[in-house]
Amino acid sequence: MNMIFLMDLQMMLLDMIYFILRSSVRTVLRPRTKPIDGELVLITGAGGGLGRLFAQEFAKHGAEVVLWDVDGGANEQTAKLVREMGVKVHTYTVDVTSREEVYRCAELVRRDAGRDVTMLVNNAGVVAGKRMLDCPDELMERTMKVNCHALFWTVKAFLPQMKAQNHGHIVTIASVLGLFSTACDYCASKFAAVGFHESLAHELLAEEVEGVKTTLVCPYIVNTGMFEGCKIRYMLLPPLEPQYCVEQAMNAILIDQPLVCIPRLTYLPVISRAYVLCHLGRQRHEGVTQVHLHSLRSAFSFRLLPWEANVVTYRFMGSDRCMYPFIDAMSSQASRQRPVQAA
Q1: Does the keyword Lyase apply (predicted)?
Q2: CA spacing 20 to 30 A to 95: which of 132, 147, 291, 299?
Q3: Which of 18, 92, 186, 244 is catalytic?
Q4: CATH number, domain at 65?
């Protein structure tokens, strides 16, 4: 057993070196993009912001698009823009927080389009814009349902057909704010979205479903008005232009890139939060080498950087408080809209 373990360890290290080298080469020599003309692409949150731009970008590549949004009017405006590009469009008013509605509309899509969705872009997102203790429970639940729970419902609705055909692509629009910052509802929901996507990707790899690809998109703050006033110190990272963000995401999708952080500087939080495998405890039981559950947990207890190092880095950049101006602006807006009661 010890020899098998050492051989597996050696193969793992060689594979790691190979993939690091391959990734380095790909930063210089861009891989060939895959054609997506004729694909049936479903985009949630398609009524505005990034969703509308994603719809237009997929249309440019000849894909047939399905637009889901809770705002039917905004969704139709997106559809009008896409139809002007000569692409077939299907629109549905869907509340993705309702799993029953998601499953029902998924069947409608199959009936209306006459085939299965082959690319799913989970883009819908909301934010409450309040500090944790000031945020009503209902708003927290809404954020978690839209930004996290909906991912489960949409994937469960469309992944079985992708696996059956061994063909498909699932895209999760998360955020680097899922790795740091100070808006508990949004950041926690995006952290959950990252965890969901990574778990899904590993599950597909474990099942050797090679034809279904996944791409996790983690952009910095995008200048869509959703986070008006949010910024970090010295404008080290100004808000991204929506078109640039979507173009970078599309570049990753078209080469089946598993993860893209936009801009590249935002890979640093991912690296700084990484864990280093430091110990695996083993025991002999009935002649078989086993790993202690307690030791397995301790194997992931050593961060690449100590927690305090992350804290001072965030504090220097201002990312620990970058959401506060946005939260204060949302509070002021709510106060102005509150009706004045007569004495």
Answers
A1: no
A2: 132
A3: 186
A4: 3.40.50.720
